[in-house]
Every structure is written in C-alpha cells, then in structure tokens.
Specification:
Structural class: mainly alpha
Strand content: under 5%
Radius of gyration: 32 Å
Oligomer: single chain
Order of helices and strands: HHHHHHHHHHHHHH
Number of helices: 14
Largest sheet: none
C-alpha cells in the first residue's frame, strides 16, 4: 500500500511536470504566432504605404495631364484683361486722370489694378474653371529654411540688379543722377521715407505685399508649374520670367525685371512651394524701394553728399555689387542643391514603384497659347513704351 501511494505520487508529479511543459510550449507557440502576425501586419502596412505613395504619384500625374494647357489659358486671360485696361486708360480720359503717374494716388491705383485686381481676377477665374488640385498650385511641402532664405534673398538681389543698372547707365550717359526703372511707386526712394507713416505703410502694402500674393499666385502658382516639367526646367524659368517682366509694359525696366522674375521662378521650382516665391517677390520689391535710401546713406558716409562724378559712382557701386553677390551666391547654391535632392528623391520613388522616369517627368509639348499671349504682351509693351 505504501508502494502504491509512492507510485501514484510520482505519477501525479510527472503529470504536473508534463502539464507545465505543455503550457510553456503553448505559450511559446502563441508568442511565435504573434510575432509572425505582427511581422505580417508590418509588411502589409509597409506595402500599403508604398501603394498609397504610388497612387498619389499617379494621381498627380493624371492631374497634370488633365490640366495640360492651363499655363497658356491663364496667361491669355491675364493678357486680355491687361490689354483691355491699357486701351481703356489710353483712350478714356476719365480713367487716365485717376491713373496718372504724377500723383501718389495715380501711382498706387495703377499698380493696384495691374498687379492686384487684374492678376487676382485672372487667377480666380482660372481656378473656378479648371479646378486644379491644391498641390499643383501651392506645391508639396514648404521648408522653414527655404522660406527664410527667400525672404532674405530679395534684398541682395534687388541691390545687385539696381547697382549694375546704375553703373551701366552712368557709364553710357555720363550722368550722376540715377532714376531707378520700373513702376513709379517703387522709385520714390528717399522722398518716400520722408513722408507720413501712413503713406509708407500704404506703399509697402500696394507695391510689395499685394504683388507678392496675387501676382505670384498667377505667375508662379498657375503659369509656371504647367510649363516646368522634365527637361523644360530652364526654358520655363526664362520664358515665364520674360512674360512676367513684360506685364509692367516698360521697356526700360525689362532686363532688370527678367532677372528678378527668373530668380523668383527658380525659388518656386527649387523649393517646390509657392510661399518662398511670394516671400522673395515681397523682399525684392521692398529692396527696390529702399535702394535709393541705402545709396544716399552710403554716399553720406563716404563723401557727405551724393557722388558728383562717374568715378565716384563706380567707387560707391562696386562694393554694393560685390557684397550683394557674396550674400546671394550661397542662397542660390542652397536652392540648387535642394532641387537636386528633390529630383533624386523623385527618381528613387520611380524605382520603388517601378515607374519610368518619363511618367514622373513627362515631356511637355509647346504651349502655343502661352507663346501667343507672350507675343501680344510684347506688342502692348512696345506700343506703351514708344507712344
């Protein structure tokens, strides 16, 4: 009987041990299946993200195909409205009285109509008719560094362009007085900062802020992206800059405006967002306004008066050109590197999704409507400048 009790006790202990071993195996099996399940869900989640990225790229590609020709239609509409305003101003005395450049009211009203009302009206009509995606107009994502550098870049670029223009004008004409080209509202210079704070603020709003919003929306938001795809990057920057520069209808300021708008277009494409381009436009116009003040302050430091000879102008302008170029060059390098990085990322995405590079960067056909609008704008500019 004692022997039977020991046997049963040993048997029960073996059973308990066996049960423990079975539980541990079950626990190990459940853990392994959980790991396999989590790994499978991770892979499926990763695949779903890649698939979503591919669908998004293809959706943007389809949207780009749908909006083919939007650049020409936007440029044609803006040109039509601008030509109608020019004809009205030329042949309707009541309108020309209010938009005369001999008064601050006329200068502000004229710039407000062209770069504010007409540009915004054309943009709104195109957006209502075409209904482009938000990413097409504004871009993908904006960086803080890109926006900050764009805001800073306008000042050295404006100083560089105006200083070179002043140097060339002085060498060709031999005159020491310099009138900056472009809109009269931008050329008040020192006289502006001797006026009332209200007039200073109103000038900055009309000449700097409004063009940075409405005109940038039209040029860098609607016209430029439709032309700058694939290998058309450099050609789009130049052609759109020429079109935007001619909108001022001033032949004298054309080279300077082409330089400024080409840089703004580069900022828009290299940063892949509209905000840095708008900030660059704002700071360029603000730098344009304060350049005469900077020039006079520099002259007072050197000679106590404005320069009285071409040699003094050269002595004063060359340091401005050098310092502005030194400040602008690193910014240009940054935007160029940023564009190369974005282009490399796009190529990598194409390889991940097994897409051809031509699918992401399709070759654009010539937009003949945009070319026609450019020709009409050129004729209007020549007519206005030579009349």
């Amino acid at each position: 009987m004692y022997t039977n009790f020991v046997y049963k006790s040993n048997r029960s202990q073996k059973t308990q041990v066996k049960k423990k071993v079975d539980h541990s195996k079950i626990g190990h099996t459940n853990a392994a299946s959980a790991v396999r399940s989590s790994g499978h869900s991770f892979k499926s989640a990763k695949l779903s993200i890649i698939e979503l990225q591919k669908r998004r790229l293809l959706a943007l590609r389809q949207e780009s195909k749908r909006l083919r020709g939007i650049s020409g239609r936007a440029a044609a509409l803006f040109t039509l409205l601008l030509v109608l305003f020019t004809i009205t101003e030329e042949f309707v005395p009541l309108v020309s009285v209010y938009t005369s450049s001999h008064s601050f009211r006329g200068q502000a009203l004229k710039m407000l109509i062209v770069y504010g009302f007409i540009a915004l009206l054309a943009s709104v009509l195109i957006v209502i008719i075409e209904r482009p995606a938000k990413a097409v107009i504004l871009g993908e994502k904006v960086g803080i560094i890109s926006s900050f550098l764009a805001l800073l870049s306008g000042f050295p670029l404006a100083f560089l362009g105006l200083a070179v223009d002043q140097l060339i004008s002085s060498l060709l004409s031999g005159e020491t007085t310099y009138l900056t080209p472009g809109w009269d509202l931008l050329n008040q210079g020192v006289m502006l900062f001797r006026s009332s704070p209200a007039q200073i603020g109103l000038t900055i709003v009309i000449a700097c802020l409004i063009p940075a919003i409405s005109f940038s929306l039209l040029i860098q938001g609607l016209i430029l992206p439709g032309l700058a795809t694939g290998r058309n990057y450099g050609r789009a920057i130049l052609t759109v800059a020429v079109f935007a520069a001619m909108s001022g209808l001033q032949l004298r300021a054309l080279p300077l405006l082409i330089l400024f708008y080409a840089f703004i277009n580069k900022v828009r494409l290299d940063s892949d967002h509209l905000l840095p381009a708008a900030l660059a436009s704002f700071s360029i116009n603000l730098g344009w306004i304060i350049y005469p003040l900077v020039f006079q302050l520099t002259s007072d430091i050197f000679w106590g008066q404005l320069p009285g000879s071409t040699r003094q102008i050269i002595t004063l302008v060359l340091p401005i050109i050098l310092l502005s170029a030194m400040a602008l060059l690193p910014i240009i390098v940054y935007y160029t590197n940023n564009r190369n990085r974005l282009h490399a990322e796009a190529k990598e995405q194409a390889q991940i999704h097994f897409l051809q590079e031509e699918e992401l960067f399709p070759k654009r056909k010539i937009d003949y409507l945009f070319l026609a609008a450019t020709v009409v704008m050129m004729v209007a500019m020549l007519f206005r400048s030579l009349s």
